[in-house]
Amino acid sequence: MMDTQAPPFELTRRAALVAALAAGTGYVFWPDHTRPRAPRGRLELTYWEKWTGSERLALQKLVDRFNQSQDRLWVRLLSISDITSKAMVAIGGGDPPDLIGLFSYSVPVYAEARAILPLDSFAHLGPIDLDRYAPGIADLLTHEGRQWAGVNTCYTLGLYFNRAIFRNAGLDPDRPPRTTDELLELADQLTIRDASGRITQLGFSPNLPTWWPFIWPMLFDAPIYDPAHNRCTFDSPGCIAAYEWVQACADRLGPAATRAFAQEFVRSMHGPGDPFISGRAAMIVQGPWMANFIGQFNPALDFSAAPVPVAPSLPEPHLPRGMLEADVIMIPRGCPHPEAAYEFLRFMQQQHVQEALCSMHCKPSPFREVSARFKAGHPNRSIDVFDAIAKSPRVSILPQTSVWERFADESTSAFDAIWDGADVAATLTELANRLQRELDRALEMRRRRNAHRRDS
Amino acid sequence: MLPRSAQRRDQLAGLVWISPWLIGFVAFLAVPAAMSVYYSLTDYALLEPPVWIGLDNYRAIAHDPLFFLSLRNTLIYAFGTVFFGTIVSLSLAVLLDQPLPGRNLVRAIVFLPTLVPIVAVSLGWMWIYNPNTGLINVTLRALGVSNPPNWLGLPALAMPSLIFMSLWMVGSAVVIYGAALRDVPAQLREAAAIDGAGPISRFMHVTLPMISPAVMFNTIMSTIWSLQVFALPYIMTRGGPSDATLVYSMYVFRSAFEYGKMGYASALAWLQLLFTLALTIGLLALARRFVYYRAA
């Protein structure tokens, strides 16, 4: 029998078209309540920054201060995850924001590609005095003699140590290790294992975390890159000595046991389960921000920080060594309002503004001279240590090369191999050869690109 | 037959209705794919306009140890997930084809992991693999293993661990095998049984040939997916330790968005497409010999 009843609802073409149009119109005109609107009459600048959480909120306070300080511009701060790749795509696609907050190692890549605007081209709007910055910071902001970025906090790495664990082990909590030999001795002494050999408390291990596998040569006064000759020097005797010390740590503490211990914390760093914050690691290499997280998650922790120990032949307590890096703010090529962006960038370079941001981020000041108020009210109890490293003539900065990301990735793999017992000299030689090929290729590409630029 | 003008009107209407897909296909697939062929022949750093360098990227790939390493790792992953995935999913489907109590519930449970976002799966398995507090090692310790391994932390174990966890997501394949098994005529199995064939013989000589199109479909699809694997190792190991889990797609991503070598990454991506195509053609050639298609 045929079903003669009409279906209860029939979707006609017209109904579908009307529904689609209605949905599209609704989407276009639906008010976006989540986005703060710029006051009428002000020019809106878009600023991409990598920070989230409390670090973003700290920056937002200063953006608000700028927005309230005048009535022409309005800066809208956006937190962008994976900002490096998104910045590349935005600039390459010709639709960048007005300002981008990246890392100081990004400066050579962006500067060589002319993807950012040199700040000296805005000098007619008021110059930025490079001499005010600490020497290392000035180096990070410049490339091939021109300034390309403003600073937006800086950091150095220090050795955090748990004073309570030191005391309980009968050690002087005011006498952290100064040399790598002392560090290794203490690392072993303060490591506690259970009956099965599993580490329950770690004294110290260079693989916790492996975020900076390239810093160890700095502590042996061995550069990993020679900028004058564009040479990778990972295979130098100093670097080999540094990674032999790393391997000695692995051998002494047990490569498998330390790796298992580190693996336990892969996703819990900088949280309540962080090995140092939770008291499971007696010493750790970290940046000044660690004090922020300790204050947040375990304010009762009795800790202090010291310069990362150096090779026994190098200790100069008044000239600490370590790595200096900075977060930077840049004006991308093709941004809609470069001059207005420069005005905000200059605002951020004022000493009181940077000091306020650095203070909220628990970091040292990027300037040569530090105001008394900055140190007096700083929330990081070890700020003097980080500040002294930042201003030390012995401080190291990362290689200023456009292939730095490759350096970082490949040195991580080499570190892993060395930790597992690979021959140090052979591993570093292979690493240096691989990176040298990348450096040579990048240089060759750059020559071709420059020739192409001249021709066109 | 409709007059020509009416035919043309119908064609136009059809084109208008599929135009959203057509526009999407051209704008987001055809044009980018064509452009990536061009980019693969250039030095393109994303931040600057591309500069023509001919086949230099392909020549550089031929001397790039990370290319060969990531290709090797990807092939190991693909072989492991396809081979073991087929065994596990087929076994589960056969099991769930039996008239057992609660099999619908079990079927749902087997399918459930495929609905979980890959990031959540990865983070969950990172906890399971945690060398000290993870479920596996805690269980092994309870069973008397004093020093259980660091699954994701040892170069030799990291890739097998990723392959093992990928078996957790065989739900889709189980559903396809289940449907194919229900389609096998019962009288064929009964006839084989009457002829004296045991359960294994019946499965190998009756059931397996009858479901061979489903096996081939799943094999081809899982091969393609596993050759493109990215999220699992990216979240769980970041390619480590010692590049033991650096897979091809991750290397393409790093080259493009970390090292800023979009031209080089485009060349890598085209080679990836060619490998995938070659493998798929190889599998289809095998299908002609081993797959049995019933006449309609």
Task: Please give the share of residues in helix of chain B.
Answer: over 70%
Instruction: Note the main sheet of chain A.
Output: 6 strands, mixed
Q: For the terminal residues of chain A, how far apart are their CA atoms?
A: 79 Å
Q: What is the strand tally of chain A?
A: 15
Q: Please state roughly what percent of the residues of chain A sit in beta strands, choosing from under 5%, 5-15%, 15-25%, 25-35%, 35-45% or over 45%.
A: 5-15%
Sum up the overall morphology of chain B in one term: globular
Low-confidence stretches of chain B: none
Mean of residue pLDDT values of chain B: 91
Secondary structure class of chain B reads mainly alpha
CATH fold category name of the largest domain in chain A: D-Maltodextrin-Binding Protein, domain 2
How helical, in percent, are the residues of chain A? 40-55%
CATH topology of chain B: MetI-like fold
- Physical arrangement of strands within the biggest beta sheet of chain B: 1-2
Low-confidence stretches of chain A: none
CATH class of the largest domain in chain A: Alpha Beta
Task: Describe the protein in words.
The complex is a heterodimer of chains A (456) and B (296). With 456 residues, chain A is α+β, with helices and mostly antiparallel strands. Chain A folds into two domains: 43-156 and 324-396, D-Maltodextrin-Binding Protein, domain 2, CATH 3.40.190; 158-322 and 400-442, D-Maltodextrin-Binding Protein, domain 2 (3-Layer(aba) Sandwich), CATH 3.40.190. Helix content of chain A is 42%, strand content 14%. Chain A is globular and about 75 Å long. Chain A starts with 12 loop residues before the first helix and ends with a helix. With 296 residues, chain B is mainly alpha-helical. Chain B has a single domain (65-290), classed as Orthogonal Bundle (MetI-like fold), CATH 1.10.3720.10. Helix content of chain B is 71%, strand content 1%. A two-stranded antiparallel sheet of chain B has the order 1-2. In chain B, strand 1 and strand 2 form a beta hairpin. In chain B, helix 3 (65-96) packs antiparallel against helix 11 (212-227) and helix 13 runs antiparallel to helix 14 (262-290). The model of chain B has no long low-confidence stretch (mean pLDDT 91). The chains are: A alpha+beta (456), B mainly alpha (296). The interface between A and B is large, with 40 and 35 residues.
